[in-house]
Specification:
Helices cover 45% and strands 12% of the residues. The chain contains 6 helices and 5 strands, in the order αβααββββααα. The chain has helices spanning 8-19, 27-33, 43-49, 74-78, 82-89, 97-108, and strands at residues 24-26, 53-54, 59-61, 64-66, 68-70. The strands form 2 sheets. Strands 1-5-2 form a 3-stranded antiparallel beta sheet.
């Protein structure tokens, strides 16, 4: 796909794949970075297009049930326990998803879109 024809959400989803410092991300964090909500039905196909795969069940992350996406190392994480995925997803700690991604981009020396 030509860069100019990509939507802002597609570009941001690519930034998540490139810079998110952990292999697993909860959907709420994706919505925050894409500045949208769960009502936005374009998020799933965008995540699929950039190579994030959906974990088949909800996980309890930060004390609440969440849907997760596996960003990289798919084979490792799809066969991992729910506890291992939860631990990976919780690595962002109490920082907002936007702060985590901006910090990661800054550390990489890249300019966010």
């Amino acid at each position: 796909m030509i860069e100019e024809s990509k939507s802002e959400s597609q570009k941001l989803a690519e930034e998540i794949v490139k810079f998110w410092p952990f292999d697993v991300i909860i959907l709420d964090d994706i919505y925050e970075i894409l500045t949208t909500t769960s009502a936005d039905k374009s998020v799933r196909p965008i995540c699929d297009q950039v190579g994030m795969i959906s974990y088949p069940t909800s996980l309890r992350v930060f004390g609440n049930k969440h849907r997760c996406r596996i960003i990289r190392n798919h084979d490792k994480w799809i066969s991992s326990s729910s506890g291992e995925l939860r631990n990976e997803a919780e690595k962002r700690g109490c920082k907002s998803a936007k702060d985590v991604i901006l910090d990661a981009i800054e550390k990489a020396g890249s300019i966010p879109i």
